[in-house]
């Protein structure tokens, strides 16, 4: 390809994106990919969704949703605008842009598991063509785009920044947060080359209000990790403060609410029974793993990780002590867990600390039940198995349990009803402000 053709590839791609005649390919149609698909469809792009899950693909093509906060109406509207989902990776040549939104979990050794990203890339690359832009949105360690994706594209004979364009633009979704949506959350974008950067900005500008360029894919990758590690470290701090406050018979939630009245120099973070979601419990380990390759030890980050990882056991200790004060043991006690999603008012179960609490209690001989209006049936999960359904909350049902464990503070729960009828409440979320004989803060 001569220089004029190389320049034409970028010019033509940008022109298609500016005129919204480009086809957008979203690879991975979950909590990140699906909102992004809806946004591109809303602004006039034809979108092709690619996912390995045939059941998801079938539901989407029928105008159905499998994520609670995404309505079936919005999916049906996207379908009417030309959206189509497929499991066929050979169609990767059709879109002008391929945006990868697949999971990046940890393996059994708490090391990065890039298998979803790499398998997806390997499935796309054979069918790619000149003039396409590929964007990775999956959270990962600095260097992934350059070290893993770039060589795979080059193996096809593509010249990055000339034939095809490669960027990293981390997802910033916050499911269930009514204050932000895909369009209004600024988008970080780092390109492998200056031409790639131009392509990335052109890709996201029609759909996102503000695109924030950074100098490289590595800078973009580290930006995402810093955002989530900042939260993980501060949550670790307040979790440690919670333990100290508990020993001093002080309500840490009261303290945080008071501190938050300061109009500068303080940001409120709240303790809980452990970290949940796909980002905060996982992302710090991506950086600590990569840092070891440079002979560096991320002591501050790892300490916060240890504190946060210990929280479920600390909660179980408080529950055990509370039962012991009432001449009962965990073994044989009926425990109702309130909320098994990882955060309030969503149906997302990824890395939920509630599940770890349930497993610890089950292993100690408790009879476990749960109530969660957002998760009516305990889902099939790779590592966790409970054959149970959400139980309705009535005065009689609440009174039938020895312990009610508030693990996720959904707004839908009637906390007054619970307080009036529960024998014992273990409150891990600070939902009860005033001390009561049957409430133990944890």
Textual characterization of the structure:
This protein is of the alpha/beta class. The protein has 2 domains: 3-220, Rossmann fold; 247-441, Rossmann fold (3-Layer(aba) Sandwich). The protein is built from 14 helices and 13 strands. α1 (3-19) packs parallel to α7 (194-204) and α8 packs across α10. The longest helix has 31 residues, at 217-247. It is elongated. The mean pLDDT is 94.
Q: How many strands?
A: 13
Helix/strand/pairing class, anyone?
A: alpha/beta
Fraction of residues in H or I helices: 25-40%
For this structure, what is the CATH homologous superfamily of the largest domain? Answer: NAD(P)-binding Rossmann-like Domain
Largest sheet: 8 strands, mixed
Strand content: 5-15%
Low-pLDDT stretches: none
Q: How would the global form be characterised?
A: elongated
Element-by-element helix/strand order: HEHEHHEEHEHEEHEHHHHEHEHEHEE
| CATH fold-level name of the largest domain | Rossmann fold
CATH architecture assignment of the largest domain: 3-Layer(aba) Sandwich
Domain count: the total is 2
């Amino acid at each position: 390809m001569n220089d004029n053709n190389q320049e034409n590839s970028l010019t033509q791609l940008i022109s298609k994106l500016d005129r919204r005649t480009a086809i957008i390919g979203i690879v991975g149609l979950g909590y990140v990919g699906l909102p992004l698909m809806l946004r591109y469809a809303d602004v006039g792009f034809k979108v092709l969704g690619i996912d390995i899950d045939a059941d998801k693909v079938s539901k989407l093509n029928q105008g159905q949703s499998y994520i609670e906060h995404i309505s079936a109406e919005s999916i049906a509207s996207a379908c009417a605008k030309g959206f189509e989902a497929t499991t066929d990776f050979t169609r990767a040549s059709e879109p002008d842009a391929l945006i990868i939104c697949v999971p990046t979990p940890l393996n059994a050794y708490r090391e990065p598991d890039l298998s979803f990203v790499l398998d997806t890339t390997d499935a796309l690359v054979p069918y790619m063509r000149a003039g396409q832009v590929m964007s990775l949105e999956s959270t990962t360690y600095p260097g992934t785009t350059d070290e893993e994706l770039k060589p795979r594209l080059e193996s096809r004979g593509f010249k990055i920044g000339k034939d095809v364009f490669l960027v990293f633009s981390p997802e910033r979704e916050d499911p269930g947060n009514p204050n932000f949506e895909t369009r209004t959350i600024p988008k970080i974008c780092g390109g492998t080359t200056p031409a790639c950067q131009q392509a990335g900005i052109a890709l996201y500008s029609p759909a996102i209000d503000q695109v924030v360029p950074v100098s490289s894919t590595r800078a973009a990758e580290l930006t995402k990790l810093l955002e989530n590690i900042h939260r993980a470290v501060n949550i670790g701090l307040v979790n440690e403060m919670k333990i100290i406050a508990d020993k001093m018979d002080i309500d840490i939630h009261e303290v945080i609410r008071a501190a938050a009245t300061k109009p500068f120099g303080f940001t409120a973070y709240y303790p809980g029974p452990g970290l949940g979601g796909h980002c905060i419990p996982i992302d710090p380990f991506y950086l600590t793993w990569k840092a070891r390759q440079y002979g560096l030890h991320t002591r501050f980050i790892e300490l916060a990780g240890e504190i946060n990882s210990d929280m479920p056991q600390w909660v179980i200790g408080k529950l055990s002590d509370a039962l012991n004060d009432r001449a009962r043991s965990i073994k044989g006690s009926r425990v109702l867990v309130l909320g098994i999603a990882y955060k309030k008012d969503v149906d997302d179960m990824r890395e939920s600390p509630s599940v770890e609490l349930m497993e610890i209690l089950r292993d100690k001989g408790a009879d476990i039940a749960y109530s969660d209006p957002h998760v009516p049936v305990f889902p099939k999960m790779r590592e966790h198995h409970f054959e149970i359904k959400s139980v309705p909350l009535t005065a009689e049902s609440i009174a039938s349990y020895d312990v009610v464990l508030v693990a996720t503070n959904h707004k839908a729960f009637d906390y007054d009803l619970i307080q009036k009828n529960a024998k014992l409440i273990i409150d891990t979320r600070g939902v009860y402000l005033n001390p009561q004989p049957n409430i133990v803060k944890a």
